[in-house]
Write a sequence for this structure.
């Protein structure tokens, strides 16, 4: 009887950890999305953070916190390195460039056997990530998103999202904001990757591919990226629902897919638009229509 | 020298499949300015249904027809049930990406439920076993068959686009939806036909993929999607001749880098190339031929 209870708590605790981690990640992606950067680089940045921190804790014997920080910084550095060329691209071209980055990282992880373990991955990672650490990170991300909304930074971000050419003309340093948001998003991704690696027993190259990036993007988009709590709601929903649909592996995929399609079709503002519909329609009418002009000029 | 020709034959046979698949992806982008991430799943369904038909004892052309039809119907359904409502509601374009990926998940899950999760192959028959040896170059009959089928499909598409009223309508909508409406083109129907053609090409590519590698599984769509995206970047988004050239180019690059550099970094070279092209010439290698993105 006790064993059953323990098992239940064990799997339940794991779900909580996963939710907190995904909330943190969701706000990281939201940073990039908030200025129209549809980044598929999250998987690559997570892989950088995960592999480097695991290498440091397992082979270097570094303290966990330092290793995680280094993982995040490495991801931020990689973002900085690719930023100059990549940030020149807009819309779908930006998306495809970040996608190529993620794939290159994945393929390197697949082949650099001495550090990454190749296709087999790394097994036996010490489980150093604690629930409270994840909770602090998630709360910090949430607080940051909250603090940004009322600040000059938040206004600038909103302006850039509406029309970046106009924002530039008004004296907002568009490139500077895009760069810092891209790098911060990568930093969050790197930290999340490092935490995820020390949460599970195992990491492999397929953990951080295209699907991981898209999953991360879908949290704020499904939750509603206009709303403060949107990324949080999206992350929790997309983490918990698959667990509820556990009765069949294939049916879980089918139902999750249908659910996502349903949300996208019937709640274009994300799941949060259900809750905040009245509030939104009074105050934020203009936000519902996102400009296509930014994407139209996808060629730069 | 024989090794070189061998690589070229191998590269062309795989490249022709990439080209067929990528034309579909790039066509949708050209006409509707969206990227349909469910194309890989359409390819997988085409491969699975084609295999079922072939296993039932029908000849290869019938299986190919079945794959084309199933892919096309799926493509058209995705437009009717998902993309069109999404456009009507004025959803953000990200929604289309997320929704198309969700559709891919649904299709992969359904395929697992219907066809099982195991990897299957074609039964050995006269075609798959037959090879010719010309001056040290081993040419499999299946490679020739694939290249011929792919080229025929591409010619058929070129004819449709250039010479028929449907093709003219598609090209007009690709040029500008407003102009198309002004000159009396039925935009909704044209979009539907575009999705049908793109899905059909994906289905055909799926069958050819399955035959070339003799591997059919519900999970084959993901890697194919990645290849398709690579090709359309190489060729330029929306550029159909670019997709054809990019498909053959990627096939040759993969085979040569596997043969002369390292097979494990074969894919990395492809992606490094994408990255480079996006940085230097984001409109694709062949954008000089067209004054604007279709």
């Amino acid at each position: 009887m006790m064993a059953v209870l323990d098992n239940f708590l064990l799997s339940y605790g794991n779900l909580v950890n996963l939710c907190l981690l995904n909330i943190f990640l969701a706000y990281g992606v939201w940073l990039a999305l908030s200025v129209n950067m549809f980044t598929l680089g999250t998987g690559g940045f997570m892989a950088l953070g995960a592999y480097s921190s695991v290498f440091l804790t397992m082979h270097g014997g570094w303290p966990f916190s330092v290793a995680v920080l280094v993982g995040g910084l490495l991801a931020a550095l990689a973002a900085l390195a690719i930023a100059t060329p990549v940030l020149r691209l807009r819309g779908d071209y930006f998306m495809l460039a970040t996608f190529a980055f993620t794939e290159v990282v994945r393929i390197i992880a697949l082949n650099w056997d001495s550090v990454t373990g190749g296709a087999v991955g790394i097994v036996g990672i010490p489980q150093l990530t604690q629930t409270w650490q994840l909770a602090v990170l998630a709360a910090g991300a949430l607080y940051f998103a909250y603090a940004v909304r009322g600040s000059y930074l938040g206004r600038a971000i909103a302006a850039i999202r509406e029309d970046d050419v106009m924002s530039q003309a008004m004296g907002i340093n568009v490139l500077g904001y895009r760069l810092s948001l891209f790098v911060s998003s990568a930093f969050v991704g790197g930290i999340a990757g490092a935490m995820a690696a020390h949460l599970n027993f195992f990491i492999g190259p397929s953990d951080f591919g295209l699907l991981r990036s898209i999953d991360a993007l879908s949290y704020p988009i499904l939750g509603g990226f206009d709303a403060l709590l949107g990324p949080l709601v999206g992350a929790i929903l997309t983490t918990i629902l698959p667990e509820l649909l556990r009765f069949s592996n294939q049916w879980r995929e089918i139902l999750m897919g249908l659910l996502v399609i349903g949300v996208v079709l019937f709640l274009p503002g994300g799941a949060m638009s259900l809750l905040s519909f009245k509030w939104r329609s009074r105050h934020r009418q203009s936000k519902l229509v996102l400009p296509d002009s930014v994407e139209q000029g996808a060629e730069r | 020298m024989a090794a070189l020709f061998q690589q070229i034959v191998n590269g062309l046979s795989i490249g022709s499949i990439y080209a067929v698949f990528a034309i579909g992806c790039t066509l949708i982008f050209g006409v509707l300015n969206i990227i349909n991430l469910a194309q890989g799943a359409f390819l997988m369904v085409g491969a699975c249904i084609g295999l079922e038909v072939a296993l039932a004892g029908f000849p290869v052309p019938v299986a190919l027809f079945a794959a084309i039809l199933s892919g096309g119907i799926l493509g058209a359904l995705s437009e009717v049930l998902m993309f069109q409502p999404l456009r009507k509601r004025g959803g953000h374009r990200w929604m289309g990406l997320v929704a198309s990926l969700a559709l891919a998940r649904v299709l992969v899950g359904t395929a697992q439920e219907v066809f099982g999760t195991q990897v299957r192959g074609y039964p050995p028959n006269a075609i798959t076993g037959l090879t010719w040896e010309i001056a040290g170059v081993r040419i499999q009959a299946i490679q020739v068959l694939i290249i011929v089928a792919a080229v025929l499909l591409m010619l058929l598409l070129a004819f449709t686009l250039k010479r028929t009223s449907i093709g003219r309508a598609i090209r007009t909508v690709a040029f500008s939806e407003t102009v198309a409406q002004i000159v009396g083109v039925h935009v909704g129907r044209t979009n539907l036909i575009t999705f049908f053609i793109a899905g059909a090409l994906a289905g055909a590519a799926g069958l050819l993929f399955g035959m070339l590698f003799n591997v059919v599984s519900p999970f084959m769509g993901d890697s194919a999607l990645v290849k398709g995206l690579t090709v359309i970047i190489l060729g330029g988004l929306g550029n159909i001749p670019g997709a054809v050239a990019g498909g053959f180019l990627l096939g040759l690059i993969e085979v040569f880098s596997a043969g002369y550099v390292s097979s494990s970094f074969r894919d990395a070279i492809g992606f490094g190339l994408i990255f480079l092209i996006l940085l230097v010439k984001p409109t694709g290698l062949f954008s000089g031929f067209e004054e604007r993105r279709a």
The radius of gyration of chain A is 19 Å. Chain A touches chain B through 48 residues (CB under 8 Å).
